[in-house]
Amino acid sequence: MPDTPACPECRSTITYPTGSSQMCAECGHEWNPSEVAAEASGPVVKDANGNVLQDGDDVVVIKDLPVKGAPKPVKAGTKVKRIRLVEGDHNIDCRIDGFGAMALKSEFVKKA
Prior knowledge:
Blueprint: E1 15-18, E2 21-24, E3 30-31, H1 33-40, E4 45-46, E5 52-53, E6 59-61, E7 79-80, E8 84-85, E9 92-96, E10 100-104, E11 109-111
Antiparallel strand pairs: 1-2, 2-3, 4-5, 6-7, 6-11, 8-9, 9-10
C-alpha cells in the first residue's frame, strides 16, 4: 500500500487522492495536504527589521515600553534572552531582569 497521509480529522490511514487533495474513506473529510503542512509549521514571527525569530533567540528592545503596574518602563536597548514564541497579539513570552515574566510584541524588538 502506498504511503498516504493520515486524515487530520479522524486520524484514519484509509485515505486516497482525489486530484490535488486527499479524501478520508472513513469520515469523508477532504483536505489539501500542502495546506495542512503549512498550518502545522506554526506562525512565522518577524522582528522590527524583518528577521525571522525562533524559540530561544535573544532580542533587544528598540523603544521604551511602558509596563502596567511598574514604576518604570522597559528601556530601549534592554537585552531579552531565550524568548518563546506564542500565538496571539503579544507573540513573544520572555523573562526580563527587574520585571519578571512578560509578553512582548515582535514589532518592538530586533534580533540580537
